[in-house]
Write a structure and sequence with these properties.
The complex is a heterodimer of chains A (255) and B (422). By secondary structure, chain A is of the alpha+beta class. Chain A has seven helices and twelve strands. In chain A, the strands form five sheets. A four-stranded mixed β-sheet of chain A has the order 10-2-12-11. Chain A has a two-stranded parallel sheet with strand order 1-8. The longest helix of chain A is centred in the N-terminal third of the chain and has 19 residues. Chain A starts with a helix and ends with a strand. Chain B has 422 residues and is mostly helical. The chains are: A alpha+beta (255), B mainly alpha (422). Chains A and B meet through helix 3 and helix 4 of A and helix 7 of B.
Chain lengths: 255, 422
């Protein structure tokens, strides 16, 4: 697409959103910043399972609020003594107070694989990896076959089984074409590391929302970044490394 | 100019006569077609609802994201592939009794493929964007995505299974000998293509390390073995029905049916053997990958919805194996038909819901969601099955009289403008 064509598409889309939601949107098409490869760090020993990240994500990324409510982040509650066997995890824990005694919490979202199985299986090139390493979806090109959902080992993708319910007053109008713009029914969506934010030098919403400093973010190609510091000094691991997907999502414990 | 007008006239006559042929029949024929059309309309109405509100109208969700539709798709691809079992003995080894009916088998394959494609279409969230999958016009992810491979393979196979029988039937209609030099390469090509469509469909699941239940190299061979059980079983039943209800005397000899049933015995042996090989590996090694097998065969953490189904399927398959193995039961129509029914249902459970659903249970993050299709999914599925049956019925209504010589060009040449039945 030439930049002229892009501008026309964006103008049309902004108009359509204006009609549908009655709000003025700014749809960014900002390209990847050169020499960046985004990566995420999550310090398991700090997470208290409060799910503030989950709801900050919903708000920032214009997910469907109800019937159904869509989450890009899932927090799994595991009994202490187990981190690998996810079959024993509880996804819908709901106590009055967190953290609960005897449990640890494992938040999971799209792991932004460097070798993403979801991209490989998509029959129509509706999803791809950007130069800064983020796997994105063109919601207007997705045909809703859900092959990517079957291929993802992390349940990183969620599907709009129905028309999303996005109340006008809860809309975040500052969006990116490949990120948090409002979606439509029966297309797939996923975490983009808040592409609309990180390409402008801000942190993803979940990183900002975390009250315990569990969540870290940075550029793998920058030797002075927070992520490089963590990988060099802490004990890091990645989920299901044996599948060869090369996630850019590092879990770690303080050394 | 004159010649072109002749050809146009010819074609018009052929269509007119075909339409009359299709539109006239016994009371039973009308009743059958009308009930199929009724089922199709009900299915269509339910599909309209799904199309309007989205796939939330089904029981699928983010945990079990494929369900009854994809299960039926998998089964029907197998049924279509099985037509090759008729092609090999008839065209390659010139086994005469089967040769008489091979055209019907190929039309059966074509109808199955149409159903398989329809099942994928109703499973798509955005049918309005299906053209994105087309080469050139859209942006097909070939050769990376196995779904792209499947689209090409299925359509290629559909093309072959329409071209071959239609070519032969047109030749028969004009009482001419087919040009074997032209059509034989296509016939031979259809044999590897049949294997290919089912292998590609198996690979579609097979290539996903996220789903250990499908990520076993034995999958494609198991797919082929089970397909060569169920497909021929359906064909045996259908041929007997045709023999009974058709007013034309079509040559379907018992000999042909028994030959096909012998092939089922071999295929079922392979099917059971491959399954036991897989079960041994999983149960003896007891790794985390056994979870889906446990869910299917014994229940997992108290979730055991599929258990009675899979054991029913296993029982049916084993009984059917012995029916087809023993010549006395194989060569008696009553027991043969019982065996066929057992195979058709047993394999449907095993490689339909019994194959697709456990791939999603437990899901990659260990969640267990028990999926059962809802009324809408069932109705839409019945609608598609009815569509396939209707297509097949109408094809038979024209193909059989051509094969028997009752419906030919010569009759019309003799100036017989009204259609005559024998």
């Amino acid at each position: 697409m030439t930049s002229d064509e892009k501008k026309r598409v964006i103008a049309k889309l902004e108009e359509r959103y204006q009609q549908k939601y009655g709000r003025k949107f700014q749809i960014s098409t900002q390209e990847a910043v050169p020499d960046t490869l985004w990566a995420y760090g999550l310090e398991l020993s700090r997470c208290i399972g409060c799910r503030r990240c989950v709801y900050a994500c919903v708000k920032e990324n214009n997910q469907s609020r109800h019937d159904p409510q869509l989450h890009w982040i899932r927090v799994l509650r595991l009994k202490r003594g187990n981190l690998i066997n996810l079959e024993d995890s509880e996804h819908y824990y709901d106590p009055d107070l967190v953290p609960e005694k005897g449990f640890v919490y494992l938040p999971v979202q799209c792991q932004q694989c460097q070798n993403p199985p979801c991209v490989k299986v998509c029959p129509v090139h509706a999803t791809w990896q950007e130069p800064d390493g983020v796997v994105v979806v063109d919601y207007n090109w997705c045909i809703g076959c859900r092959y990517c959902i079957a291929a993802c080992p992390y349940k990183g993708r969620v599907f709009n089984w129905a028309e999303p319910n996005l109340p006008r007053e809860e809309i975040n109008p500052s969006v990116h074409y490949l990120g948090n713009r409002p979606r439509m029914k029966c297309a797939v969506e996923k975490c983009t590391f808040c592409i609309q934010r990180v390409r402008q030098g801000r942190y993803p919403a979940c990183v900002e929302a975390c009250p315990t400093g569990t969540r870290k973010f940075g550029n793998l190609l920058d030797p002075n970044s927070e992520m490089r510091y963590i990988i060099d000094r802490e004990r890091v691991f990645r989920l299901k490394e044996d599948l060869g997907t090369e996630p850019k999502f590092y879990y770690f414990f303080e050394a | 100019m004159e010649k072109w007008r002749d050809i146009l006239n010819e074609t018009w006559h052929f269509y007119k006569r075909t339409l009359t042929l299709v539109a006239t029949g016994s009371k039973l024929y009308y009743a059958w077609c009308l009930s199929l059309i009724a089922i199709i309309i009900i299915g269509l109405l339910f599909y309209m609802k799904q199309h309007e509100i989205g796939l939330i109208a089904t029981n699928m969700n983010d945990q079990v994201s494929w369900g009854l539709y994809i299960a039926n798709f998998t089964y029907l691809v197998g049924a279509a592939a099985a037509a090759v079992l008729l092609v090999i003995p008839s065209y390659v080894y010139h086994f005469k009794p089967i040769k008489e009916i091979v055209v019907l088998g190929e039309l059966f394959a074509a109808s199955s493929i149409v159903m398989a494609i329809l099942f994928v279409m109703v499973d798509l969230g955005r049918l309005d964007r299906v053209w994105h999958m087309l080469p050139v016009l859209g942006s097909m992810n070939f050769p990376q995505s196995l779904l792209a491979w499947d689209v090409l393979a299925l359509n290629g196979y559909l093309f072959l299974n329409l071209l071959i029988p239609i070519y032969l039937l047109v030749k028969f209609y004009y009482r001419k000998n087919p040009n074997w030099k032209f059509i034989l390469p296509f016939i031979l090509l259809s044999i590897p293509m049949a294997v290919a469509i089912h292998t590609v469909t198996a690979f579609l699941y097979n290539g996903l390390p996220a789903r250990p239940f499908w990520n076993a190299s034995i999958l494609a061979p198991r797919f082929l073995a089970s397909a060569f059980c169920s497909g021929p079983a359906i064909i045996i039943i259908i041929f007997q029905i045709i023999r009974k209800v058709s007013i034309h005397h079509i040559e379907i000899e018992d000999e042909a049916l028994f030959k096909i049933s012998e092939l089922i015995a071999y295929a079922m042996f392979l099917n059971l053997f491959l399954l036991s090989a897989e079960l041994f590996k999983e149960y003896y090694s007891q790794t985390v990958h056994i979870a889906a097998f446990k869910y299917l065969f014994e229940g997992l953490h108290g979730h055991n919805q599929l258990v009675p189904w899979i054991w029913a399927a296993m029982t049916m398959n084993v009984i059917a194996f012995f029916i087809f193995l023993i010549p006395q039961t194989r060569k008696r129509l009553t027991t043969l038909n019982l065996g066929c029914l057992l195979v058709i249902i047993g394999v449907w459970i095993e490689k339909g819901p019994g194959f697709v659903i456990p791939g999603f249970v437990p899901d990659p993050l260990g969640e267990i969601f028990e999926y059962l299709p809802n009324l809408l999914e069932l109705t839409v599925s019945f609608g598609i099955w009815a569509t396939g049956l209707l297509i097949f019925t109408l094809l038979m209504k024209v193909a059989i009289p051509i094969e028997t010589g009752a419906f030919t060009h010569t009759e019309y040449e003799k100036g017989m403008t009204t259609f005559r039945t024998r």
